[in-house]
Amino acid sequence: QVQLVESGGGLVQPGGSLRLSCKASGRTMREFTMGWFRQTPGKEREFVGAISRNARTIEYADSVKGRFTISRDNAENTAYLQLNRLQPEDTAVYYCAADRQILTAAPSSSARAYESWGQGTQVTVSS
Fold this sequence. Notes:
With 127 residues, the chain is mostly beta strands. The chain is 0% helix and 48% strand. The protein is globular and about 40 Å long.
C-alpha cells in the first residue's frame, strides 16, 4: 500500500481558489491512478476527478468540470487538485486516493476501486 497525506485545505470566499496537494510515500506514485473525492456529513463520498498513471487520461465529475483541475508530478510523488471559482456547495472534506492499475487503465470514478486513502483536508467556502 501507499500512504497518502493531503494538504492545502482551508476557508475561502465564494469565487476563490485553493490548491490541494496529495503526497504519497511508501511506494512510488507512478504505479497508481490517483483519484480525488469529497464528502459532507451524512452523504456518501462523491467522485471529484481522477488522473491516470501517465496523466494522459483525466476524468472529472460534471459538477466540477471547467472549475477544477487535476495534475500529478510523479517525480515528486505528489498529486494536485486545483479548485477555482469555488462555491458554497463545494464545501466538504476532500480526499485523495490511490488505485494500483496497469499503465493504460482508465481512471475509475468508484470509491470502491481505490485501495489507499488519505486522511482528508477540509475545504470551506463561505463569505
